[in-house]
Hints:
Blueprint: H1 2-5, H2 9-17, H3 41-44, H4 53-60, H5 70-83, H6 90-96, H7 108-115, H8 123-126, H9 156-164, E1 165-168, H10 190-194, E2 200-203, E3 209-212, H11 216-225, E4 230-232, H12 238-244, E5 251-254, E6 264-267, E7 270-274, H13 279-293, H14 299-309, H15 314-317, H16 322-328, H17 336-341, E8 345-350, E9 355-359, E10 364-366, E11 369-370, E12 376-384, E13 390-398, E14 406-419, E15 422-433, E16 440-441, H18 443-449, H19 459-469, H20 481-505, E17 532-535, H21 552-555, H22 583-610, H23 618-626
Parallel strand pairs: 3-5, 4-5
Antiparallel strand pairs: 1-17, 2-3, 6-7, 7-12, 8-9, 8-12, 10-11, 13-14, 14-15, 15-16
Helix pairs in contact: 4-7, 13-14, 18-19, 19-20
GO molecular function, one term: FAD binding
Cofactor: FAD
Domain FAD-binding PCMH-type: 203-388
Amino acid sequence: IAHFLNLSSILTQIITLFRHFAINACLAPLYSLEGMHIITVEGIGNCRRGLHPVQERLAEAHGSQCGFCTPGFVMSMYALLRSSKQPPTKEQIEDSLAGNLCRCTGYRPIIDAFGVFAKTDDSLYTASPSESANGKAICPSTGKPCLCRNETDVNGNESSLLSSVKTYLPSSYNEIDGNAYNEKELIFPPELQLRKIMPLRLNGFNGVRWYRPLKLDQLLQLKSCYPEAKLIIGNSEVGVETEFKNAQYGVMISVTHVPELHTLKVEEDGLRIGSAVRLAQLQDFLKKVIAERGSLQTSSCQAILRQLKWFAGTQIRNVASVGGNICTASPISDLNPLWMSTGATFQIIDVNNNVRTTVAKDFFLGYRKVDLKDDEVLLSVILPWTRPFEYVKEFKQAHRRQDDIALVNAGMRVHITEAEGNWIVSDVSIVYGGVAAVPLTAGKTESFLVGKKLDYGLLDEAFNLLKEDIPLAENAPGGMVEFRSSLTLSFFFKFFLYVTHEMNTKGLSEGLDVANMSAIQSYTRPVTTGTQGYELVRQGTAVGQPMVHLSAMLQLPNFPLGSLVSSSQKMCPVLTILGQLDSSKKRILGQLSMMGRFLHLMSLLVLARSLESLWQTPMIMQKLLQIK
């Protein structure tokens, strides 16, 4: 742990040069990892060499149950710690795990396990605790009576209950010293640092060709030779298409090393964002710009930054790009309505180095069709600065807050100017996503609002026009037509309240009713907290005891509990397992073997019951006899 939280000067220098990113291995083509240092859960620690402190914590806090999701949680936390110059906050820890799903634990033990890495001042916990007036110890984290140190409760009626029920308390930071981990932390291999990056031309299965240019002119030359080639950055969309939709692409061009597509510049008229910029990079860049420029010019930046927080998970944002999301032209893209409403423009370059500019509103032509010819490449996005009294707001409604696609989303912008003593709408843009094959602009509503004072009196007419602008047929794809239609109206109402409140803070409009204040507040979720209570009743050996299950230590490094076995006989049993396995692993393997036979029998019974006509066939009976 000290190795993580008290980083040496050498490790600090390495972190400034190299950064660890957690990505989804299932979507990362092997070709795309050339020249990178790949770290897997097996590489950071295992049972033989010693578990890494991150692995150790997860096991001891009962954060690994079935083990299916365990490696992903470990690597997400490991990447956060290795890429952080200072100990992360609890909010950062939870954000880094947002892309990891678990169906067993309820997340509480996982959050408890990794929460120790967020503590930065252990003297608060190891020193003598302060006491309240009634003599009870005060927790330095919460300022409330400390359950860890108070053995009795002031309420006598509860003392008998507490004597038989113990509360599970997460181990404190100083109790996990990582002594079992004898390995040094992995560094970026020197041979990769010294290796010169070269263009790639690789051949894969079924005639697939993979190219990696290093310059824009190389990319354009490849595009002229292969007009229908797919441009790859994070593979978060193409990977799904090829893996699950049987899409076939003969030529793929990776643009991860083309510097002209990775531009991030602050210019006089706005921000220039390269099409290959990762969404995680865009987040960091926008935070910096907002801090430097203030709120007057960055209302659009703030809206995009807030929307990115709910855009997929950390692992996807680490690889997915701005241009990839735009050119995919998904009807439910969270960013495209914002590019359109903010007045962003797209710069496009063809194979002859001719550059043209198109506004975002004209770029999307139909379902997953864009204004981009086969011999053209999206070069960059120009996001203009916002003007005084110009406000931009983002909206998204999904089944759940994180890691889910939108039912309806929207981007809205309004510019208010003073005319003859009144503050009126001089420019407005309202764009909805998830309601048609392309993001829809509410043209009639926009025309109605221009030149009018933004007050409650125009809401009814605006709502009626919105219903005409954004029609949803009863058989519209996605269903829930009535609910989604109501969302289009509620988003606009919330935008109206937001602008009204912003103008009120400047003393230019009436304040909001108290009942409406919650509509303008951004969603924030407090840091997860939880405790586990259980009754200690010994029933035999381990039943009823808070013991770490035996397979946890094997699941953390993703220990292979099964492997392919070659045999000259079909359907024959495995009599012995040769190899250096200790008794606990042999016992686990034996239990898995018995469980596997039971599940196999159950699956055959289900098959037989569903196919009653085959129940008496010799094949089924012979199969049952073999595993009896």
